[in-house]
Write a structure and sequence with these properties.
heterodimer, A: 338 residues, 9-stranded antiparallel β-sheet, 11 strands, 18% strand, globular, B: 37 residues, alpha+beta, 1 helix
Chain lengths: 338, 37
């Protein structure tokens, strides 16, 4: 069994994961050999050995993380190979929110999971290797850099940063592209991607566990409105990375400190601790406001935004579009797709 | 889990597989599976 190794990159103060067994993972198989389709009589055995299913979750065959040093799961949204988050029945997307919630609770309760990260890569433009509609969940055995930055933003702003930013966006109003009773969607003031959007719970909710059932339904509605708008924007399937940000589940003191999950020698991983509740209130776990960030690489119908010199070498995004102009176009597309 | 049923399985190679379904759709799923067979 191959096991990932974590090294700590001191110059950037962040972890790098070596999962060399993933080099051999299934890469854009033909439709007839899709491993995420149901197993049909006479056909090849797939990851889901049943002739039909609704939502399936399984341990990744090529995991970046695995017990007792984290987790990597695949979440298959439907047995329909040609569907997408946007085309699913609304009830199915609502069910998906409950599945995410269930996985957050179970993985977050594990002592070896400091951060439960639910995400979807859509489109070959962002490196997808299987077209069947699905997302993934990584249970990181350390607090990754982006959640660490969100913890730091809370401290810099003197409270919940997403709450503060949401209030600013609602007051400004120019970049808000969708609203319902529980959720607001906007292109952020300092969007890095041309059509970046943040789907933010209106009330402070640290995680899916804190949401009322109607809020989960409203989150599903907002996500679907956005991705349908994305597909309508350039009248083509719109590639994106979708990132669900919630409260860290770390139970170790110092989990928000860079390198806390790695030993001084560098090439090793975190030690598994005792199971703990996902709602543990350690300094890191006390932060978090459920929101979903979308990073679409398209800046026009045909042109991709690449991370080049400034973005990779200096860490500063250079954007060709103003968020207010993108938001106006995206809002129009969401209305058109509704 | 709201209205979802949770069915846990272990794959041949030992990996976990969880199937989530709506209780009220279970009958419809069985019918669809029978049709495919």
């Amino acid at each position: 069994v191959s096991v990932s190794k974590v090294r700590f990159e001191e110059l950037r103060g962040e972890e790098v994961v070596y999962a060399i067994h993933r080099q051999e993972r299934t890469f854009l198989p033909s439709r007839d050999h899709c491993p995420l389709c149901p197993t049909v009589p006479g056909g090849p055995q797939t990851e889901i050995p049943f002739p039909a299913f609704q939502i399936a979750v399984f341990d990744n065959r090529f995991p970046a993380f695995q017990a007792p040093e984290g987790a990597a799961e695949v979440v298959v949204y439907t047995d329909d190979h040609d569907a997408s988050l946007g085309t699913l029945a609304p009830a199915r997307v609502e069910d998906l929110m409950w599945v995410w919630r269930h996985r957050y609770a179970e993985l977050g309760a594990r002592g070896d999971v400091d951060y439960v990260f639910i995400f979807e890569n859509r489109g070959v433009e962002v490196g997808v290797t299987l077209h069947h509609p699905h997302g993934q969940i990584y249970g990181y055995p350390f607090l990754p850099p982006v959640p660490r930055l969100e913890v730091a933003a809370d401290e810099r702003l003197g409270g919940c940063a997403p709450c503060t930013l949401l209030a600013r966006e609602l007051q400004d109003g120019r970049r808000v592209v969708y609203e319902n009773d529980g959720v607001v969607v906007y292109v952020p003031h300092a969007a890095r991607w041309a059509y970046e959007a943040h789907v933010v719970m209106r009330e402070h909710r640290a995680s899916l566990l804190d949401c009322r059932p109607e809020e989960l339904r409203q989150l599903a509605e907002a996500l679907q409105a956005l991705v349908r708008g994305y597909d309508a924007l350039f009248e083509r399937p719109f590639p994106y990375v979708m990132a669900v940000h919630q409260a860290p589940t770390a139970t170790r003191e110092g989990a928000a400190t860079p390198g806390a999950g790695t030993r001084a020698a560098g090439e090793t991983t975190t030690a598994a601790g005792e199971p703990a509740a996902a709602t543990a209130t350690t300094p890191a776990a006390a932060h978090g406001h459920l929101h979903v960030e979308f990073y679409p690489p398209l800046r026009t119908a045909e042109k991709l935004k690449y991370l080049a010199g400034s973005e990779q070498g200096a860490g500063t995004f250079i954007s060709d579009t103003l968020p207010e102009e993108s938001a106006a176009k995206l809002h129009e597309a969401i209305v058109r797709a509704a | 889990m709201g209205a979802l049923l949770v069915a846990r399985h272990v794959k041949d190679d030992g990996r976990a597989l969880i199937l989530y379904s709506r209780a009220d759709d279970a009958a419809a799923d069985s019918a669809a599976a029978a049709k495919r067979e």
